[in-house]
Every structure is written in structure tokens, then in C-alpha cells.
Amino acid sequence: MGEADRILTVLTRDRGKIRVVAKGVRRPRAKLTGFTDMFHYNDFVLAEGRNLDIVTSAVTVERFIKEGMELERIALMYYLCELVNRLIEETAEVPGSFELLRETFNYIKNHEVSPVVIKSYFEMKMLLLLGFAPELYKCVGGEVELNDGDDLSFSVRLGGVLQGDARTKDDFASPISSNTLKFLRVLQQMPLEEVLKVKASQEIVEQTSSITSDFIEYMMEGKVKSLSVLGEL
Fold first, then answer.
1. Domains 6-63 and 71-232 belong to one CATH topology
2. Domain extents for the chain?
3. How does DSSP classify residue 156?
4. Helix 115-130 crosses helix 178-189 at what angle (to 10 degrees)?
5. DSSP letters spanning 19-76
6. Class of domain 71-232
7. Residue 7's beta-bridge partner residues?
8. Residues 118/108, Cβ–Cβ less than 8 Å
9. Residue 206 CA from chain centroid, whole number
10. CATH number of 6-63
11. How many beta carbons lie within 10 A of that of residue 87, not counting itself?
12. What is residue 135's three-state secondary structure?
């Protein structure tokens, strides 16, 4: 495009993930400059273009960055945006993804919450929306109901939990506790407000985070760049 133009990737409620052109926004005092930043919920008016639609006007409905926000929270929002960008194909509609991202950003902005739990919650819900949620109720090595007291492990490759001798079906499966399995089920079934009421030990939270991150990266066949930054913070 032109030197002063910018191409934006936008997650929309009704059209999925799209790319649009904001013309002239790199020029000083351009009227649309403030609407092209990340972490804004904008109401865009678009004009149909030959290849990409063009932003003609915009109104900011909500800003998810606030003054004095901790770097860890901002890094988490970057990570969630990168996940959405990597997991959702352009023009693909994933019902519920817009609402999920907006809800999660709201909690990051307005509540004192564990970034690790928020991260795992978002990863699990995205997997559900995309139809790739891990199997947490039956052994993926034998299709039998899981017994919480049995020796459990999680197989990223097989997409769920193994129990007992079935662990031999994946040498890379990671052992998990029955309480971690219960917390994974909570992430799948409950809304964020209810998830945050659950008291889980640091060990369970960290084990859950490792499982959801590994599963996401296996699906994408690569690491998410911003996750390493988040880990360092």
C-alpha cells in the first residue's frame, strides 16, 4: 500500500478475522491514527475495496490498556492476540471468539487475577471453539472412563489423558495429578468468573498451564513468540 497507509488485522464479531486498510494513518495528525493501536475495541465503518476493505471512520467503544498497567498484563494481552492471529484463518468465522477475547481483556484490565490462570482459561476455551478440545473424561488410549485415582498422564500427540498401562502408547506423555485433571475440566466447563473462584495450588496452576501451552503449540506446529516473553516476566 502507500507509505502512509497501514494494514490492520481485525477480529470482528460477525465477519471473523479480516484485514483492512487504514489510509494515511502514518501521517502526522491523521484522524484515524488513534484507532489503529492494539487492544482497542472499535466500531469501524468500512468501504468495500478491490482486495481489502478500507476504513473510512471509527469510534472507540473500549480501551483495554490503562495508565499504570503492569507489563505482565500487557504481555499477556499480546500473547492472546498472537494466539487468535495464529489459530484463526483470515475470513474464517469462529463463533464466540470475539466475545471470548473481549471478556478476557476486560478481566485483565479490571481485576486482580492470576495471569497464568487467565492464560490457561483462554487457551482451553479457544480449543473448544475451534473443535480441538482435549479429551478429559475417557482414556485416549482405550476409550474407557477415567478413574481419578489411577496413574494419569497427558498426551499432547493423542489429544487427551491416558491412564495406567495405556501410558505406554505415548512415551512423551507427561504425568498429571487427579487434581490437575479436575482443574482442566473446570477450564473446559465453567465461565471465567467461576473459574477464578476455584482455589487451586500453585503446582496445579503451573501444571495446567504447561499442558494447555504444549497442546496449543503442538496444534500450531510451532512456538508462540510472546509466550517466552510472558514466561520471563
1. no
2. 6-63, 71-232
3. T
4. 60
5. EEEETTTTSTT-TTGGGSSSSEEEEEEEE--SSSEEEEEEEEEEE---TT--HHHHHH
6. mainly alpha
7. 21
8. yes
9. 17
10. 2.40.50.140
11. 21
12. strand
* 8 Å CB contact between 74 and 50: no
DSSP-derived pairing of the beta strands 53-63 and 17-22:
parallel
Give pLDDT tens digits along the chain (233 positions): 778 899 999 999 989 999 999 998 888 888 887 788 889 999 999 999 888 999 999 999 999 998 888 888 999 999 999 999 999 999 888 999 999 999 999 999 998 888 899 999 999 999 999 999 999 999 998 878 887 676 899 999 999 999 988 988 999 999 999 999 999 999 999 999 999 999 999 999 999 999 999 999 998 887 777 666 666 65
**Cα–Cα distance list, 220 to 6, 87, 132, 191 (Å):** 27, 7, 12, 25
CA angle at residue 199 from 224 to 114, to 5 degrees? 35
Are the C-beta atoms of residues 177 and 162 closer than 8 Å to each other? no
Residues, the chain: 233
Determine contact, residues 155/130, Cβ cutoff 8 Å. Answer: no
Cell numbers representing residue 19 in the block: 484485514
Q: What is the largest CA-CA distance in the chain?
A: 66
The three cell numbers locating residue 57: 471512520
